[in-house]
Amino acid sequence: MEEHPAPPRRLRARWLGRIGYRDAWALQQVLAAARAEGTLDEDQLLLLEHDAVLTLGRNADEAHVLALPELLAARGIDVVRVERGGEVTYHGPGQLVAYPIVALASPGTVSGSVASPGTGAGNSRALGVRAFVQALEGAMTDTCAGAGIVAGPRAGHPGCWVGADTPLPRKIGALGIRVARGVSFHGIALNVTTNLADFDLIDPCGMPGLRSTSIRRERARAGLPTDDADAPPTTESVAQAAAAFAPALARRLGFAHVGDLPPVAAATRERRALEALADRLVTSPAAPVAAGAR
User: pTM, whole model, 2 decimals?
Assistant: First the structure.
């Protein structure tokens, strides 16, 4: 019989709009556990924006939070310690946050369960953490390029940088992941129209004096058309970046991108669908669940 090549793995992108940090964190944990068990049949990519929040990696030094607790409390900014690697990071309006829930090992093999139909042990290849990180950095690079900005990785410093090889590199995208039972969660944060003054609350990524930048700032610097540098952040700008980032990451991973993206994606409907999916995974953990189901 003639053998046909297995179809590529699918990366289901979900545009969630503005969502609370802890809500997104809880969803990631449910999805990652189900993906490790093989009861979730597709890799997931959550695309969203957060209200202002500071997050600390599992071994991060709290001394890199420069703002006094009273100031953070007055502004309603939480400080949350999470499982990812890396130091302190700021998330806020105008910043694209992407959480890829991706099986780096074959789904279901870590826990000893059988992979669900559709995960395709035959069409699934193991991904190294290094290659996965490079794909995330590459997708940020591609997203910046689509906006007319030259950016890329910087040796020894995860993330995405403008002028990486110059005396004054500027960080435009942060990266911090966690891999548990062969599945990734947490991810990247790309500054689009972010209020860069908010980075003064911290030593970004634990690096005193680090200069943060954004797509808006760099377009203005390059003389490209952009809105006012002092204009407030917009969710619309984040949605545009999400629409570029998702297919770029799928391409970098060699996956097929599925799912609606802005401007046609409906964030409220997608959040409800994802929450319903998470509920089904929690209440029926032994039954394979189709990630694309509404």
Answer: 0.91
